[in-house]
Write a structure and sequence with these properties.
Rossmann fold, single chain, alpha/beta
Length: 342
């Protein structure tokens, strides 16, 4: 029969704690195979600190596998954890653990959080493709944003506020042929709740990448590719530093909304994961940098197929990421890159 409160109170403290611990263990059994995974993780961490490298689309993963940059660790080339494969090896002599996150915010955040919590990583490098919202950005160019924002959190309102300091999207402005009121009302963009180590929760809209890593990225000299297997761009792409990026859980293929984001927020690239990657690393203070290759115009694309351009954009973003990782390896006396204050 279960013990009464009086009987439990008469037990020695040590025995009581043992009973409680036994009950907790029985209620929360270990996941099958986790002992073996823990041993693999310990072995990987003894290999030394690594740079965490993440990408979102299969095409971006394929670009890395085909490039020959990544050299798997022969002792243990990968670990399967929580449904994802974490590849262990090196790029240009620098320890790297890379993983395909999957698309959109939750997948990106879960993968990065796993890297930060489970493995000994000194920072996160994120590369991939993006849509362009800035006419000065050309196909194949690589953006290294200084700030990113999550633009998919809204308060949906019935009417536009007369005096509203924050940015609103008023649907009535897009009525055709003339603007006016619209039953859809308006969207007010919301801040994110950022929880950071040693700080109270704060509401933020813009999330900065690591300032020290961004400075290193500014000094990179990378020759980007102009051609892939099917065609060549009219001019050689370039690396552009210091712009802004926007993320949301949607694939943007709407010219008017693209123009609105550029006009109101001055964002130059649009994707689905960058803000989640930066926010996840900002909380514990882990350095992070983002490289996004332009594969399409986010709404309206008169010339090339985005499917064909994704390959070239992935290759170029990867080239910049690889050069950055190599530079980190040369400049730091140890692989552990120290984060600076943003």
């Amino acid at each position: 029969m279960p013990a009464t409160a009086m009987e439990l109170s008469s037990l020695p403290l040590v025995l009581l704690l043992c009973l409680m611990a036994g009950s907790s263990t029985a209620a929360l059994p270990a996941l099958p195979g986790m002992d073996r995974v823990r041993q693999q993780v310990d072995r990987a961490n003894r290999h030394g600190p690594s740079i965490g490298l993440v990408m979102s689309y299969v095409a971006e993963d394929t670009a890395l596998q085909a490039s020959g940059y990544f050299r798997p660790w022969h002792v243990q080339p990968f670990i399967d954890l929580y449904g994802r494969r974490f590849h262990i090896g090196s790029i240009r002599g620098v320890n790297v653990i890379y993983a395909l996150t999957g698309q959109r915010r939750l997948n990106a955040a879960v993968t990065v959080q796993t890297l930060v919590d489970v493995f000994t990583v000194s920072g996160i490098v994120h590369y991939g493709t993006a849509g362009s919202s800035n006419d000065s950005m050309s196909f194949g160019d690589v953006s290294v944003p200084k700030l990113v924002a999550y633009t998919g959190a809204w308060t949906w309102k019935k009417y536009k506020s007369l005096k509203e300091e924050s940015t609103e999207l008023n649907f009535g402005q897009f009525n055709v042929p003339n603007g006016g009121e619209n039953l859809l009302g308006s969207l007010k963009y919301r801040n994110e709740e950022l929880y950071s180590v040693g700080k109270p929760m704060e509401e933020v809209f813009w999330l900065p990448v690591d300032s020290a890593w961004f400075k290193i990225a500014e000094g990179l000299k990378v020759n980007l590719e102009r051609c892939n297997d099917t065609f060549c761009l009219p001019k050689t792409p370039q690396v552009v530093h210091g712009l802004k990026g926007a993320s949301a859980d949607m694939f943007l293929d709407n010219a008017e909304y693209r123009k609105f984001l550029f006009r109101e927020f001055a964002v130059s690239t649009i994707d689905e994961e960058s803000a989640a990657v930066v926010m996840t690393t900002t909380s514990p203070g882990v350095p992070v940098i983002v490289f996004r290759g332009v594969s399409d115009l986010a709404g309206g694309e008169p010339t090339w197929s985005s499917t064909s351009l994704m390959n070239l954009a992935s290759i170029n973003a990867l080239k910049v990421a690889v050069e950055f990782i190599a530079t980190i390896g040369r400049q730091m006396s140890t692989p552990l890159a120290q984060s600076s204050k943003n």
